[in-house]
Amino acid sequence: MTANEVIRAPVAAVEAFCVSAFTACGADAETARDATRSMMHGSVHGVDSHGVRLTAHYIRALEGGRLNKRPKPELRRIKTGSGLLEADHAQGARATYCAMDHAMEMARESGIAAVGIRNSSHFGPAGAYAKYAADKGFLALVVANSDSFVRLHDGTERFHGTNPFSVAAPSGGPDPWLLDMATSAVPYNRVELYRSLGVTLPVGVASDAKGVNTTDPHLAEMLAPVGGEFGFKGAAIGGVAEIFSAVLTGMRLSPEILPMGGPDMSTPREMGAFVLAMDPDGFIGAGIVEAGMRRYLDLLRNSPARPDCRVMAPGDREWAEAARRRVDGLPLDPVTQDGFRTLAATYGLKLPF
Amino acid sequence: MTANEVIRAPVAAVEAFCVSAFTACGADAETARDATRSMMHGSVHGVDSHGVRLTAHYIRALEGGRLNKRPKPELRRIKTGSGLLEADHAQGARATYCAMDHAMEMARESGIAAVGIRNSSHFGPAGAYAKYAADKGFLALVVANSDSFVRLHDGTERFHGTNPFSVAAPSGGPDPWLLDMATSAVPYNRVELYRSLGVTLPVGVASDAKGVNTTDPHLAEMLAPVGGEFGFKGAAIGGVAEIFSAVLTGMRLSPEILPMGGPDMSTPREMGAFVLAMDPDGFIGAGIVEAGMRRYLDLLRNSPARPDCRVMAPGDREWAEAARRRVDGLPLDPVTQDGFRTLAATYGLKLPF
C-alpha cells in the first residue's frame, strides 16, 4: 500500500472509530453520536466531502474551543409551530438533529413547524437531517449558510457560502425522495479533484481571484452560483438559505462568518441554520401522500431517457452507492487515513483499517 | 398604428378594463379582483407572460366551465398551522390569495403555517402571492405544478410543468426581497420570442420532439430544467414544487394535468398549489429580521460586479421596471390588444387604449 492509495474500511468499524475519537476528546455522548451519524450519512451515500474526512476537523474545533464539548442546547418555543434553538456552540450536527427532533414534535400538533438554530457551526450534509425526518414520516426542508465561497450573479467576489438546500419526502418505499444540493454550480471539492487530476473545469462554474470565469482549476478562487447563464436563480436560492438560516435567527451572514478552516479554531462561529418539518396528516394524509409519491416516482423513473442514461429521482444515485458501500466498505482517502492515524495515536484508539 | 405595434396604456385604465371584463362575464367580485391583481402584478413588473395577456384566456375558461364563476373556497384547517383550501374550481388567483390570507392568519398563532390548495387552476405569477404576504410582514413560499413542459435531467419527454418556485421576505424597505422563478432553464415565451425574432436559443435550454437539445427555436418542443450540466438540481426543485403542490394535496401530477390552452375549456383541471407563511415574530422578531435584511441587501447590492454590470437582489429588476411602467404605461402586444377588442365588443366595454 502506497501513501496515495484509497483504502476501504467496514462501515461499522469506521462508525465506531469516529464515536470513540469524539468521546476520547471529551465530547459528550450526544455530540459523539450526532457528529458521527451526520458524517456517516455523507460517507455511506458517497458524499465524501461531508463524510468522515471531517472527523479530524471537528475534533480540532472541539479541542480548540470553537465548539462546545458539552453544550446544553435549549429550545425557545415562541409560537405553536415555531421557535429558536439556542445551540450553545454545539457541533453543528448535534444542534441540527436536536432542532429537527423539536420541529417534528411540534409539527405533530401544528401540521408544520420550523426551528431556527442559533450559535451553531458547520453542520455537514444538510440531507442527513432532511432524510432523518423523512424516515420518520415527515416532509422536511433544511438550509444553512456558510463562509463566503460563491460569487453573486454578475458579481466578482466571494459572497454567499455554498449554502446547502435540502428537501426530503417519505416515498412510500424504503428510501425517501431526497434533494440535497449546494447552491454553487459545483462543490469546491470538485475543483480540488480536478486540480489533482489535471483536468479542466466545465465552462462557467468557477472564477479566478478577479471574478473572471476560468476553466483552470488552479486559478479557481471562487465558485459560480448554479444555473450558468441563469445564475441569478442559483444565487437567489442561495439567498433563501441565507435569509432562513441567518436573517430569521439573527446570526452571521455568509461574508461575516469566520473561515471554516481556521487558523482561528477557538472563536465560536455563531452560525445559524433552519429546519422545517411537515406532517402529512396536517394536509391530505399520510396514506394519500405515500400513494402519490409512489405514483410520481413510478412515472418519473419510467420516463424515457437519453441513450445510455436512466432518469433517476433525487437520491437514487445515493441509495445505490450506499448499497455498494455497505458491502465493499467506505473508501478512505490518504488525508483521511492520516487524520485517523493521528487521532488513534493521540487518544490511543484502534484504527478501523 | 399598424397591426404589429406594441402600444402602451395607463396602468389604472388596464386594471379597470380587466375587472369590468371579468364582472361582465359573470364572475363574482372576488374573482374579478384577484384574477386582475395577479395579472397586474405580472404586467406592472415586466413579467408579461403572466400579465394581462391572460385576461382573454381566463374568461374563456370561466365561460367554458373549466373555472367556476362564483366559487365558494373553503378552508379545512386540519392542525394549528396547516390545512387544505377546497377551492371549488376557482380561478387560480382567487384560490391562492384566499389560501395566503388563511396561511398568514394561522401563522400569527403558530409562527409558520401552510395551506395546500385543492381543485384550483392556473394561478399566474407565483411571485404575486409571495409579495402579497411579504408586503404584510411575512416571509412566504409559494409553489405550484402545471401541465408537462419540461424534460427531466437525462429525460427526453415533457414531464414537469415549468413549476414555479417563489420566496419573498420583507426587506425593511418599500419593496420585498422576491425570488420568482420557473424551474425550467428559460420560460417558454422566450422560445416564442426567439422564433419571432429569428434568433437562436442558448445551448442546452430546449429540446426537440425527441428530447435532443436544440438551439433552433422552431424545433423546440420542450424545455430543459434550469442548471445546464447540473440540470438534476433544477429538475429536483421542480420536484419540490410538484410534491408540495400536488402530492401533499392529492391533486394531479404535471403529466396528468389537462393542457392549459385547451381545446377542452370545460373540464376543471383539478390542480394543486401550496402557500407557506412565516411570522418573523415566531423567530428572532420582526425588528431584527428587518435590520438583518437591510444589512444583507446593503452588502449584496454593493458587492463588486463584472464590467458594465451591477449586482442586483432578486426583485430589483422588477421594481425598476414597475417604476417605469407606472409612468409610461403598460405595453400591450398585438395579440393582447385583439383579445381586449374582442372582450370589449362582446361585453360592451370601453377599451383602455
UniProtKB/TrEMBL annotation, chains A, B:
Per the UniProt entry, the signal peptide is: none
The record's listing under Gene3D superfamilies reads: 1.10.1530.10, Hypothetical oxidoreductase yiak, domain 2
Gene Ontology MF terms: oxidoreductase activity
UniProtKB keywords:
Oxidoreductase
Q: Calcium: is it a keyword of this entry?
A: no
Instruction: Answer whether the UniProt record assigns the keyword Oxidoreductase to this protein.
Output: yes
Family named by the database record: Belongs to the LDH2/MDH2 oxidoreductase family.
Q: Any idea what this protein is called? A: Ldh family oxidoreductase
Q: Look up and give the organism this protein is from.
A: Szabonella alba
